């Protein structure tokens, strides 16, 4: 399978549940990203990993916990979420920064639609 | 600092009509600019990118955008809209070219009327 694959596509969870979102890429990229997409708001960058090392954490609450075991897989562990965390969570990957093309292009997955009750 | 502003959160056009989606940027240095498209129930997909090689950039599906430094604009156009163009379109800017430092606009929802 090619591209960026996210599972599950839909998730409904209670505020006390623990769940995980999974992202997998087969593009040979070594940078991976989590974005949050809420209605009427710009995409929010949550986390960035490069070569399995977290290089960006944009003031995301600790109830979101990322994990990048290797350059092809990225997880977002969720626990004790709030209703305002309901959103579409998008995973993306890219080539290394400073690649010869001059500008990184993000390749996105289809997203995981999260509803917190 | 960098930012983008997309004018009009919703745009409606008739099938066959010109599509014009507006994007203005703010950047202290010459930026890299991008347009992404999001079809229903899908992630974002790159339409085109500006990397200073040419001011008129052609993308996929017949879309193009023109970089105008004097107007700080990067508007997206297509001569003739198709029903399949209905989607949300996002303008984005990065002063370094790095995806790690990409700032997205709020998006414009394009509706194509039969």
What does it look like?
The complex is a heterodimer of chains A (117) and B (114). Chain A has 117 residues and is mostly beta strands. Chain A contains no helices and eleven strands. In chain A, the strands form two sheets. In chain A, strands 2, 4, 5, 6, 9, 10 and 11 form a seven-stranded mixed sheet that branches. A four-stranded antiparallel sheet of chain A has the order 1-3-8-7, with no helix packed on it. The relative contact order of chain A is 0.32. Chain B has no helices and eleven strands. In chain B, strand 7 (64-68) and strand 8 form a beta hairpin. Chain B starts with a strand and ends with a strand. Chain A binds chain B through residues 4, 6, 31, 33, 40-43, 45, 48, 50, 55-56, 90, 92, 94, 97-98, 101-111, and chain B through 9, 32, 34, 36, 41-46, 49, 51, 90, 94, 96-100, 102-107.
Question: TL;DR of this structure?
Answer:
The complex is a heterodimer of chains A (117) and B (114). Chain A has no helices and 11 strands.
Radius of gyration of chain B: 13 Å
Report on the biggest sheet of chain B: 6 strands, mixed
How do the helices and strands follow one another from N- to C-terminus of chain A? EEEEEEEEEEE
Mean of the pLDDT scores of chain A? 89
- SSE sequence of chain B, one letter per element: EEEEEEEEEEE
Number of helices of chain A: 0
């Amino acid at each position: 399978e090619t591209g960026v694959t996210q599972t599950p596509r839909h998730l409904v969870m209670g505020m006390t549940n623990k769940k995980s979102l999974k992202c997998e890429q087969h593009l040979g990229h070594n940078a991976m990203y989590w974005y949050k997409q809420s209605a009427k708001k710009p995409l929010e960058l949550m986390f960035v990993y490069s070569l399995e090392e977290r290089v960006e954490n944009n003031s995301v609450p600790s109830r979101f916990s990322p994990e990048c075991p290797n350059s092809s897989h990225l997880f977002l562990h969720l626990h004790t979420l709030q209703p305002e965390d309901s959103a579409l969570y998008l995973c993306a990957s890219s080539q290394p920064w400073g690649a010869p093309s001059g500008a990184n292009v993000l390749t996105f997955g289809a997203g995981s639609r999260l509803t917190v009750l | 600092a960098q930012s983008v502003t997309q004018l009009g959160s919703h745009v409606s056009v008739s099938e066959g009509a010109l599509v014009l989606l507006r994007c203005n940027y703010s950047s202290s240095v010459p930026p890299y600019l991008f347009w992404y498209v999001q079809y229903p129930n899908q992630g974002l997909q790159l339409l085109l990118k500006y990397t200073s090689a040419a001011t008129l950039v052609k993308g996929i599906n017949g879309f193009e955008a023109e970089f105008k430094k004097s107007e700080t604009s990067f508007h997206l156009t297509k001569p003739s809209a198709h029903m399949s163009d209905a989607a949300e379109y996002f303008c984005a800017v990065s002063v370094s070219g790095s995806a790690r430092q990409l700032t997205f606009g709020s998006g414009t929802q394009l509706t194509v009327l039969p």
